[in-house]
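Convert to structure. Protein one:
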Amino acid sequence: MQLPAILEEKYQNCSGHTGVVLVKGISGVGKSYQAEQFLHKHEDELFILMLMPNNSYPHEYEVFNEGFFKCITSDLLAEKDSSGLPKILKEVVRAIPYTEQYLLRYVDDGEHPIDDTQFQVLTNRGSRIRRHVIPYLMQLIETLSGGKRICIYCDNIQLYDRPSFNVVMDLIRVEESDRTQEWFTLLLYTENGLSPEIGHPDIQEEYTGLRELTDIHFDEVSVQKCRLEDMPVLCHSIIHELKKKSIFRKFAGTPDFTPEQYKCLYDHSGGIISHIQQALCNLMRQDLICCENGLLTSSYDWECTEVKQCIEDPVKKHIENIYKREKHNQTTLEHASILGEEFYSSYLNDIFHLNYDIQKILNQITEKYQILIPQKNLNRRKDWSFVNRLHHSKVYEFIERVENYHLSVADFLEKNEPRNYEEIERHLLVVGEQERAFPVRIKN
């Protein structure tokens, strides 16, 4: 399911409640692009407060102030009481630092001059936002919304200045009984962002707190894998992000690959978005993709050596990265690859005597790296598989002296499962034991 469809489902499910959806994923996979597709669909029914960092090192309250005060116009303020500012706005301005540089921009437009009293209110900075002001801020946003459902859209929250991040979290925590309208908050977090101000531990701490609030509908979406039918939209969003880099600016077009090319890219990547992103990056660097009449196409056969190398390289690097992260990852994956593309996890201990919690490691590898898939069909004997043949073969390539491993499997099966003819024969033939495999074939 594509991200807009997932967001649509979450949005509808939290109708009548305060909803929060966190979308996580690496950079360039189309989180922002697809989230904005969802927002565009609902723009007539939503009052959208867009909080988007303009640089990697914002000043205190910069992200919140920039987004919030874009919602305020001089005409709106002129309609208020004689002071030109409603009480709730005064309270907000008194408590949030650096607001005058934003408010003066929108109020003093020449048509509605501000007097000395108003100027003093606007320039009265606070050193830190105070919790008691949050209800005033919420009330002001609800007033500005004109009765529409309110959506706070927070892109790249890892780049927020910490005070802006705290304001958003405090707004989310306001009790539902204190709100007059429905609120929906969409948080986008880039997991591989450089030098994040808001780190992963900060986000995890907030998750825990939000989940404990019973009146909040909280959901988390991790954008890591896709389906074959998602490929055209995904490739479009990935290339859209890549074109922001100077090296790729010449690719000013929309991807228009053939169904066969999309399928080739999907099959080799296993649908893992980071692999697809890196493969497209490699193809563009090698000029195996070109731009003609506003369309990005490739005249190459994507099964040829040059293209296959571009597509397969991310898989090899991914496996190398997995091996660096945890000492049992390499041992577990390599022994699993000896068993085959699909394997029975209990064999890892029964045959190779790996003295640690195999299921825990398999689950961790699956959750973090998506290289394995648990088989949920209870009728199947083999309860795990690699995500595809390429990932299996690349793991297998790292192994030295495979002969001993295959002989250990054959010995175990002959002793404990002598009727498992095909598997016994397969492991014997891999190591060139034709004479020993021949009687097995006769029995079969």
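Protein two, convert as well:
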Amino acid sequence: MKKLLATLLSAALLLSLCAACGAPADNQEPAPSASAPAGPANSTPAAPVDGDALAGLEPRELIVASVRGEGPDEALIAYTDRITERTGGKITFSFFFGGSLAKANEAVDALQNGVCDIMMVNVSNFENLFPLNATVLAVPFMGMNTQTTEVYPELAAKYPELSQEFEAQNLKLLSYSMTAPYNLGISSDKEIRVPSDLAGTKVICLQENIMNFLSAQNAAPVQVGFADFYTSIQGGVAQGIIQNGGPINTQGIYDLLNQYLIFGEDGGLYMELVTYCMNNDVWNSLPDAVKTIFEEEAVEFHTHDQRVLNENIRILEENAAAQSSRYWEMTEEEMAPWKEAMAPFIQEKIDEISAKPGCSNFHAIYDDALAMIADAKK
């Protein structure tokens, strides 16, 4: 699988290079043709690039902005450490954690305006800029889970429209990951088994078509900031939350939940694409040898970061076992009424994206994504 990922990442890279030489550029692709080691903890550090290739390289420090902390960003830190080592200490990185330099919803502006050189961009926060990337793997009930995270570079290699969205924002895509699946946590004692059981329940939710679905069940969607998830549930502002395992774990929200509904084995309602981007002007200013190092190390970066994100699922399961909470992993039969109730809102979302400029091919991309997800599970 790692070999396949590297090949697909290379294909996506080739597409971006072609676009950079002419048309509305494509720049989506994560990484190139290096086969990924088993993992940073067990891998031997790569030797510095041939000295001739880096001859005359001036020392340079790149600014990395993060909305997370050092723990969640361990893969990004390891990635930059390897780049520093392979460039003989010539390329170094200065990190600003916890949103101290830019908040999540400021990521694109921060990159474009030189506030930072590298930053994580959760494209779901910028659907107006990345309608295809923000939606194509985040439509509910696509079947995304931890087995299917390598579908994205396969899609990007086939559909340059995905890459072109990054290039249009003057961004170079360095790597990507998929969040842990989004599922439903409930703090009240009311048992939730079918969509109609949600009536009268206030649920924190950030995706518009899910909000519309909740309203149709006579539930009340609640929008609060990331930092207010815990206090909103603790204080009764909401009795439920649709969120991935990251915030559920790191904020301690699981302690407030009486039920945690899992939509399918190792799955969820949907997952989101998280990208790591560099200002494209900065990228183009780097020597080719340095670019190669960034791209080669991106394969291991992706593997490492995805492993960290997937760990949230295991922690949730451990918490469930330890606390004897109602951790309910639904079967296909049990999900059927949820899928039926969600169907019109899924179609509404697909039609909405398809009508946006540059997105007329979305139906085809979506159908291919479904086929690729199914193949990845075989």
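The chain has 13 helices and eleven strands. The longest helix spans residues 288-323.
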